[in-house]
Amino acid sequence: MSKVILKPVLGTLLNGRYRVVEILSVKAQVSTYLAEDIYQTDSPKCLVKQIEPANNDPEWWVTARLRFANVVQTLKKLGTHPQIPELIGFFEENQSFYVVHEWIEGKSLSAEFVPGQPWNEERVVLLLQEVLSILEFVRRYSFIHGNITPETFIRRASDGKLVLIDFGCESQICSKAESAENCNQATVDVYALGIIAIAALSGLNPEQLVADTDIKNWRGRVPVPVSNQLATVLNQMLQVNIKETSMAAAPTASVEDYLPIAMRVTTREDSCLLELESSKHQTENLTSLTEKPSSRRSKPFSVSRLLITGGLGLGVTANAGAMIFGLTTLLEASQIDPGQDIFTKASEEYKSGDFKQALALAKSIPTYSAVYYEARNAMQRWENEWNQASHRFQQVEKAFKENRWLDVFREAEQIPDNPYWQKKLKPLFQKAALKVKPEVQQLLQAAHREVKRGDFAAGLQVLAKIPKEVPDYAQVQAIITEYKQKQTLKLEAKAQQLLKTASAKAASKDFSSAVKLIRQIPKGTSVYELAQAKLIEYSQQRRLKADGLLQQANQKAAAGDFVSAIKLLKRIPKGTSAYFTAQSKLLEYINQREIQTRRNTPLFTPVNRRITPSRQPQQRASENVEGGSLVSQSLNPGDLLQEIDSIPFNLPG
């Protein structure tokens, strides 16, 4: 029974981490998705490949997992190259294997191939140099890409460098054992790159050249002459063409069947050079799971295949490495990138003050130059600096006309150190130099007065107003150094005294005062580090003391002594964990004290008690005030009347 593989849909969360936001491609065994990594800040984009082994055999799956693990380890190593996407993660889920790569923002190299618009030689040379350096790195791990086309390169938006993507190695876990034979020549990547270079020179689509049986006569397709150096390089790259030997042995096969893997435009991704020597057991198991030889087309004899299966595959890889090294060396010897010389000249023009000429030269650097993006960044920087310098120079001229001599030098400090602007400032400085001296002298005197009062910080602030461009600034700098040294000595003495006083406060259990003093010790003094340790110690002691006061207050309140409890709570210092609890308890205990006071105070005077004349109503009212709380009285006026039953009363005659 065939196995059902669930394909992610938009919004699916893979491995609980990668949310699918776009389905990029769906093939027989490999599907590709654009996802967001929700584990990372801002959920960056990533590329997720789903590998779907169409096999239910448990023994086959054991082998597949081992092969997948090997592939992942190699992808990790390849991802350390700055022009190969980094492997972010890998996992197995829903009967599929997944690999997660860094997402590269940019455009495909294929977008730069416009039919009928051939590249010039300089641009092709730079392409070869850049790509060969990447292939050399891949070769170090006995790997080939196997699918080199313009679509497998992304021109990264951030720096304009080419990034090699779409390694088909991960699908190797789905391949039959003999499929490794198709990957037996590490030089197929070099051949494929040669085809791309010729397509660029001729203005043709690379696919048009794939089936060309007379590709070695490529010069007839190129509309412009090519230097002998580049022609030598391309001829060497095309010598690894494996079509001729294969087609001779199997003339009935289609041309596409014998094209280098790197130039096929199909869904096959058999692009991994198997390490058959180190995994012989896996190969034997995998061979037993493949279809019978009678059901397969016989493969033509290949010396390279014999070398690999016989354990000599490293020789082919080494030869490929030697070829890549030789090609790179040859290209370096024929370096024809004009960009560096143009950029150097543009920089010189900018420094000399010819801003327009500098921009014109920088703009003329071709897009394929190694310094193209560096030149673009320099142009932006030059423009910003030039605009800023122009504005500041106008301010200098304005200050000069208004006799604001100090401002002449202050504004000049903001102008970039460019020979052109320094030359324009020189005559203004010469005229303002004599005028500014009295103003500088006034500031020096003001600073001296501040220092004489003991305020070195204020004195240094005054000296900071003197521009560094004024004449004889070295004398001003010497005074600044002197004041800073004296300020340091004063701060040191103050720090020592603060630490001593804080220690005395701590010894008397006044940890709150000790903490306040310690915090005043300035940073940079010799006792600062010790003070920080003491700050931790005293803060801890203060916290323990605050906790103790809170506990005592609670005990007093439990015993009904709210007056003492309130006094204890008021002693708990701010900044401790007990302080906030103490504030809420303080309100509670004050209310409890008032309730307690009301209960202990009589509200009414008995009617049969005689009030002596010496006790007036006002006195009785004041006696009802206890603990600062006035107890409300009855509004019945009879309560304040004296008894009169014993007083003689005679009616009139």
Write up this protein:
The protein has 653 residues and is an alpha+beta fold. It folds into 4 domains: 1-103, Phosphorylase Kinase, domain 1, CATH 3.30.200.20; 105-292 and 302-336, Transferase(Phosphotransferase) domain 1 (Transferase(Phosphotransferase), domain 1, Orthogonal Bundle); 358-471, no CATH class; 496-599, Serine Threonine Protein Phosphatase 5, Tetratricopeptide repeat (Alpha Horseshoe). Helix content is 51%, strand content 8%. The protein has 21 helices and 11 strands. It has a 6-stranded antiparallel beta sheet, covered by helices on one side. Strand 8 (153-156) and strand 9 (162-164) form a beta hairpin. The chain starts with 12 loop residues before the first strand and ends in a 23-residue tail after the last strand. Residues 177-184, 242-318 and 617-653 have low confidence and may be disordered.
CATH level-four homologous superfamily name of the largest domain: Transferase(Phosphotransferase) domain 1
Q: Estimate nothing, just give the exact number of structural domains.
A: 4
Compute the number of strand runs.
11
Strand portion: 5-15%
Q: How is the CATH topology of the largest domain named?
A: Transferase(Phosphotransferase), domain 1
Helix content: 40-55%
Largest sheet: 6 strands, antiparallel
Query: Which CATH class of the largest domain?
Result: Mainly Alpha
User: What CATH architecture of the largest domain would you give?
Assistant: Orthogonal Bundle
Tell me the structural class.
alpha+beta
Oligomer: single chain
> Helical segment tally?
21
Mean pLDDT: 76
Strand order of the largest sheet: 1-2-3-4-6-5
Query: What would you call the shape?
Result: flat
Distance from N terminus to C terminus (CA atoms, Å) equals: 137 Å
Radius of gyration over alpha carbons? 45 Å
| Poorly predicted residue ranges | 177-184, 242-318, 617-653
